[in-house]
Specification:
A 3-stranded antiparallel beta sheet has the order 3-5-4. Strands 6-8-7 form a 3-stranded antiparallel beta sheet. The chain is mostly helical and 700 residues long. It contains 28 helices and 8 strands. α17 crosses α19.
Length: 700
Amino acid sequence: MLLENFLEDMRRQQHLIEREVRQYMTDYESSGKIDAVVQMIFRLVSWYNSWKPITELGPTILSAYTLAFQTHIFSIFPPSFSRGFKELIASTFSLSDTSCPPPWAIPQELQSTDRSPRRDYLLWIACETLGLLERYESLISSVCYEHIEVHVYGTCARKWDEPMIPKLRDWMTEKIVPWMIMPYARGAKNAEEARAMLQGVGSRFDYHVCKTLCDLRIQEIFDIIIDYPDSQSALQDLKVASSRPGFETFEQMMINRVRGRLQECLQRVDQRSQLVVTLRKANKKRLLHPGADTKDILTQYVSIIRCLRVIDPPGVLLYKVADPIRKYLRERPDTIRCIVASLVGDGESGESLVDENEPIQPLQQMQADDFTDPNWEPEPIDAGPDFRTNKPSDVISTLVSIYDSKDLFVKELQVLLTQRLLAVRDGNYERERRNIEILKIRFGEAALQVCEVMLRDMTDSRRIDQHVQAQKEGPLHPTIISRHFWPPLQTNSFTMPGQFREIQESYAREYHLFKPDKRLYWLSHLGTIHLDVELQDRTVSAEVPPLEASIAEFFSQKDTWTVDELATELKSVEKTAILKALTTWIDLGVIKEGDENKYILLEIAEATPTKAPARHAPVVEEVTPALVAQQQQAEQMKVFWKFIEGMLTNLGSLPLARIQTMLKFAPGYDQTIDQLAEFMEAARREGLVTVKDGMWRLHQ
């Protein structure tokens, strides 16, 4: 009866509290300062203490009074109180660093004592008295989460040159753990009891530190990979923060941190799927588009391989991220050429894709699992059905595995070696010989036999030339190669005119005397010729391609030529190439362009005009001596078109698989069904065949 009367009297006076709460919150909403919220909390504590029953009445009445008082104030708090209380809790993080604390921070009666409590001591006691800590527990936790996020993003963003997790752990120990004592361990009597009370919430906050850092590094992952290896520390942070979750307690984590065992934190956060999604989106947006150079894509792909192996050694992340890159590179026509150029150390291709510190080793092939191996481990739990842990581990093997067969790489190696050998002027082939020996280790000796024949042809060519020159000395020093062992070269029916043809025929006769069973087939459009053009008042020396030399020979016969006349004489040469050759001699001052598309020989040099008229030389692509691998493949498929045409003529419509099976009986056929499908699609576009429901037939 006494308790009911007491509570009823309290309820009749609650309008006084409600009026003051309304006044304080109105002040806060108008000014935006948290001082009004603090004053209201301390005022409510005064009301609580003023009405609190004496202890002699027992704990039952005190508990009932406390519950009734807290229930009432919670019911009268306006919605803006949550925002103000959140700002108030956030301000407690900076109390220890400020030189001018607010008046409520340090109790007046404790300021002069030798052992003062922390500055926010009275605030937390007041919040506990009013039940605010339990009522707004999630809000208090969210304040700490946001404080952690601000600190992590402020101190770790784009800072990749040093590990950040140890610094974050030190910051947690110095700033967060002391702050946690009042809201979460204020009733602890000793350090052991406090540690036990902080175990659960401390583990959550440490998890949030790792998760926030992981989110930041995932947002930066594309740039981190670009900056590799200078960003090695950031990758280690991501590895520590992003691995699969485990069951470590906060107390164990703190002990391990003190011991320096950061590896234990590998089990804190699992952000692997987010890493894959983010990196794939970044690759699609910033890498896999027509504006990106193939060499840049390959360089970034190699960096992705190395970086993701740091984060995830089994390779599950790499498998998921690399699949779109590999498909895109497979569709690019110059991918093989860029990889091969890097293998042979092409100086013009920029940085090498191969780390010079990595040992040279044979290409690794995928092998079946050996379940008898005592060290065998099952595949990771998040691996896909097509993932294999025994995939190639070195970079070159991974790049070569983009394609189903290494034959295309071997053919491209032969093409690149052709260009490099034909470009050597001094007879020094040591660099190419060294490259071949290195490539033998990677691709095997059998695949590089043709390259050895090509290199031997170059040395034999010099020996043969020395013999021919000894029999009849002449100005011609050709490179003689074996037609059946070299890649197909660019052909042209262009024939050298005048004295150049006579020199070729003379050399061929001497060669035939030395090699009666062989004959020379001249590729007149390849090579260079050193000319001394003697005019009336000067001699012009130049080293030019054969076409330019032929133009000079024609001008030695008569002084004026038109492009049409030169095209008639040269027959198979296009007019754009003739115009380019004429531009060379115009630049050297040997000929000039006259009226009516005529070109005139300048026996006597003309005075240089003050401002020469601008000439727009036609754009002509440089002639590469050898066909690239894709062109060779297209030429081979043209040979097999007769077989395909015969099948479809005799058997009518056939599916692609049947055509592939029958073509395997043709000598020299080694194409895959995907390559056959591309060829058939090209034939369909040209109107040679039609397809319906997967059945191919000749176009009627």
